[in-house]
Input
Amino acid sequence: MRRNLQGRVVLVTGASRGIGRRIAERLGAVGARVAVTSRTTDELDQLAADLRARGAEVAVFPADLTDPASRAKLVADVVAHFGGLDVLVNAAGVSSFGEFATSTPEILRQVTEINFFAAAEMIRLCQPHLSASYVRGPTSWRPAVLNLASLCGRVGIPSLPEHCGSKHALVGLTEALRAEFQRFHIDVLLVLPGVVRSDDLNRHLLRNEGKIYLNFAGAQRPEAVADAIIRSLQQNTTERAVGFVCFWVWLCKRLFPRVVRWGMHLKARRGARRAGET
Output
């Protein structure tokens, strides 16, 4: 099946910057009607102005996805404005780079709240509207949820324990809902990028104290991840690992899990040595 996004209403969370912003730009370019949300109104307004200048239809809906009332108002406002909803892209996220032993319960809860609970509850709220957009017949259409997880959702990576925990939870939810939502005619898709270059690393990371080496400067461009997300929606790809390194780690975890575990243990030991620990 190939999904034509032209004229379809797509809600993108975390759209003010980074991958979310690039997703909104790509959706506008293929003719989707784009609803964008985040907590930063000024950046959303600038994004909307840029997209409208290129001829895209876009509407701004500022919201705090960690607040139940704000989530409910967001979905209701999007449906009221556009007359329905066809695709949900869960792109909002945050991370923490550092060891679990020196972290805090507050960081764990904040990462999990945004990366997992907010995404899960957005799916719950959007499901009836997505189901209503299903069309049978020669011009058939299937709505979709696309969850932007991470390689951390398939591989436990040291110095990223909270991020791994939240993304593993999102991957598990995605797989369960993929089966459940067939009766609603909703496809549930998953995209797994590796380390992604951030517009502002300090805003993306709750802390930056990890011992392992991560090449943030040479990381994947958010544009490449956004392109992969659009392809996944159009081609109805169940799961896509983005980038050469990410794909091979993802594949090796499936085929040779012990090798990947050994590699992560080695990575952690090297990080500890660099930090002057034994």
Q: What stands out?
A: The chain has a mean pLDDT of 92. The chain is about 50% helix and 15% strand. The chain has one domain: 9-274. Residues 24 and 34 are 7 Å apart (CA to CA).
